[in-house]
Amino acid sequence: MKSMLCVMTVFLFSVALVAQDHSQATNSLFDVSEAKVFNPGKILVQGEVQEPGMVDLSQLPLHNAPVKELALENGKQTFKGAYFISGYALCDILNKKQAKKSPENTFKPLVDMYVIVENSKGEKAVFSWGEIFHRDSYHILIAKTIQPVNPARLKTSWPLPAESRLISADDLLNVRFISNPAKITVKSYHGNAAPETVKDIYSPEIRITTLTGSAVIRDIGSAIEKRHYDSVLYGHGMGFKEVLSFSGYLFKDVIAAHVKITADNLKSAIFVISAKDGYRSVFSISEIMNRNDNQDILLRDVKDSPSEGRYTLVITDFFADRDVRVIDKIEMLTAD
Q1: Fewer CB within 10 A of the terminal residue: the chain, N end or C end?
Q2: How far apart are the first and last CA of the chain?
Q3: 151/274 same-domain check
Q4: Total structural domains within the chain
């Protein structure tokens, strides 16, 4: 009888353990491994802001993002691992550092601004202001915790970094992932401001200047992929504009046909896209050429419309303020 009670006790204890384990499990496919914890501490924000200074990351909320990390090694794409990141968003870090452009830049909209993130080793990564603030940008993080998302049926465990890292989860290649970022510098493009009136804004072509040469975009051939978007255009200043149903060329393919893009460009270069009337927007090279979210920017050809073009850039942001009508030129610059 005592032996029977002993067996029953062991059985019930085992059932209780199983039930306990099951109650602690989740349905999340990311919540399957132990996380490594970092302490990023503080980061300096400087440049074209009203109150430069240190930002205490521990006072900011945490955001999550899954990452499939792909590197470029010896000219080949190499998969480095899958991870789930919890960290501090770049938009939260910069949110209370009010932008204040240098006096020589009289172009009022903030769409010509960008930021450079650096660490003590001199490694840099550039992001446009619009990439951070004109869309849902909580996937650009400084890691607080990182856990591997290992394949369930394979004996594979992805290696974890030794230090905290800047992560841009929507990038295809990890060229903007830098360890222990310590400084963020806010800048703007110091070009000419928009004139008060321009009689003739039409431009039949786009002039491109790069770090090594120049090119001209005229007619776009059928080899460039076209996509159709239905988009609700909503401006930050004037609100709802229209529901736009249109087709456009993949802007990254248009650029690739005229400009050779390198890993260094993806990390630390920008495009300034402007019209004859002086309106301009700044983009990091990566947000155009290095996306992993299929939210690609389109170039719309409206042929000979006096008011619209010929070429209009349409962005997949929440706000439509970075769209550029009547594109006249594209300048490629190193962000420094």
Answers
A1: N
A2: 82
A3: no
A4: 2
Angle subtended at Cα 322 by Cα 317 and Cα 328, rounded to the nearest 5 degrees? 140
User: Is 132 among the domain residues?
Assistant: yes
Which residues, listed in sequence order, are joined to residue 274 by a DSSP beta bridge? Answer: 280, 329
Span 148-205, pLDDT tens digits: 999 888 888 999 999 999 999 999 999 999 999 999 999 999 876 555 566 678 888 9
H helix count then E strand count, the chain: 6, 19
Which helix or strand (DSSP H or E) is residue 95 part of?
Answer: helix 90-95
Q: Rounded to an integer, what distance in angstroms lies between the CA atom of residue 331 and that of residue 22? A: 57
What span, in angstroms and rounded, lies between the C-alpha atoms of 49 and 258? 35
Question: Which residue, chain included where needed, has tokens 């205490």?
Answer: 56
Quick: pLDDT tens for 71-127.
999 989 999 999 999 999 999 999 989 999 999 999 999 999 999 999 999 999 999
Do both 41 and 182 map to the same domain? yes
The residue segments making up the domain with residue 90 are: 36-188
Domain assignment present for residue 8? The answer is: no
237 located within any domain: yes
Q: Residue count of the chain, please give it.
A: 336
| Predicted model pTM | 0.87
CB contact set of 24 (below 8 Å; sequence gap of 6+): none
